Amino acid sequence: MHGLISPSTPLLPASEISLIYFVSHLAKTVSYNTITLYLFAVQDLHKLHNFALKLPKMFRLQKVLNGIKRSQIPVKLDHYPITIQILQSIFNFYRPHLTCDLNRIMLWAAFTLAFFGFLRSSEFTCNDHVFDPATHLCFKDVTFIPHVESPDYMLVTTKRSKTDTFRNGCTLTLARSTTCICAVMAMKDYLFQCQPSSAGPLFTFTSGKWLTRTSLTHELRDVLQQCGIQPQHYFSHSFRIGAATTAAAAGIPAWLIKVLGRWSSDSYERYIRTPQETLLAIPRQLTMN
Fold first, then answer.
1. What's the pTM value of the predicted model, to 2 decimals?
2. Mean per-residue pLDDT for 33-55?
3. What does the H/E/C string look like for the chain?
C-alpha cells in the first residue's frame, strides 16, 4: 500500500494507520460512499480469514472519514422561482405570437405548461436518450375543451409523477387566462404551428431532438440571460417553485396548492375533491398580481 507495507509485513490484519492512508488516498478520486463500500470489502476480507476488524472502534479512522464526508459536501445553489414577471419578460423576448422561430413557440408552450401545471420536469420532458410513449408526455395527452379552435380550458394527462407510485397518471385542468401569459393559448399555437408527431414526445425542437431536463434548463438560462436576468440560480424546478410561490402570494389556500402541485400531505387532504370551477379559476388568480 504505497510503501506502507514492506515484504515482511503481513497484509492482514490491517492496522488503523494503514486504513487511514488507504481512505485518504481514495478520497482523491472517489466519493465518501464509495470509500465506505471499499471498507466493507476490506472488512469482509478479514472475516474470510478469521480476523476481527472493528471499524467503528477505530476512532482516528472515523474522524478521517467524517472529514472526508464533510469536505465532499457539494455546494448547492439556491433555486430561484420563475415568477409572472419573469414569464412576461420571456414573452416579450420570444414574442411567440409574432415569431417564425418554432423552437421559441415550443419552449414558450413548455414554460407556461410547467408553470401553470405546477409540473416537475420529469412530468413533461424526456430522458436524454430514451423516449417511452407509456411514460412521457405526448400529443394525444392534451385535450382542448370544448374544442381546439376556441378552447376554454385544456386537460393534460401526465403519466408519471414522483408521488404517483403505481403510475396511475394524473389529469390536470388548466383554464385559459385573460393575459398573454396563458398555457392554453401557448399550447394551441404550438400544436397548430409546429404540429409535433402524434407518435413522438409532445415537445421537440426543429432538429428532431426532444426536450429534456438538461435542454430545458439550458434554454431557460439562455433566455433569462438575454432578458438581463442572472441565470445561475434558475433550474427546471424553478417553474414549480414559482407556481407555488405565486399561488401563495395570490391568496390560494395551502391545501389547494398541495392539490395543484400533487404534493404529499396530511391524510385528510387525500379526501378533498377539488371542484372543476375552482380549478378553472386558477390561471386568472395567478395572473391578477
1. 0.70
2. 91
3. CCCCCCCCCCCCCCCHHHHHHHHHHHCCCCCHHHHHHHHHHHHHHHHHCCCCCCHHHCHHHHHHHHHHHHHCCCCCCCCCCCCHHHHHHHHHHHCCCCCCCHHHHHHHHHHHHHHHCCCCHHHCCECCCCCCCCCCCEHHHEEEECCCCCCCEEEEEECCCCCCCCCCCEEEEEECCCCCCCHHHHHHHHHHHHCCCCCCECCECCCCCECEHHHHHHHHHHHHHHCCCCCCCCCCCHHHHHHHHHHHHCCCCHHHHHHHHCCCCCHHHHHCCCCHHHHHCHHHHHCCC
56: cell is 467503528
Please, are residues 41 and 26 in contact by the beta-carbon 8 Å criterion?
Answer: no
Chain position carrying cell 408553470: 115
- The residues facing 126 across adjacent strands are 212
How far apart CA 81 and CA 114 sit, in angstroms, is 12
Is residue 3 very low, low, confident or very high in pLDDT (cuts 50, 70, 90)? very low
Q: What is the pLDDT of residues 75-121, one digit of tens each?
A: 666 889 999 999 999 999 999 999 999 999 999 999 999 999 999 99
Please name which of 76, 74, 81 lies closest in space to residue 235, comparing C-alpha atoms.
Answer: 81
Burial of 47 (0-12, 13-18, 19+ CB in 10 A): exposed
Q: What does the alpha-carbon distance between residue 241 and residue 181 come to, in Å, rounded to a whole number?
A: 17
> What gap in Å lies between CA 177 and CA 181, rounded to an integer?
7
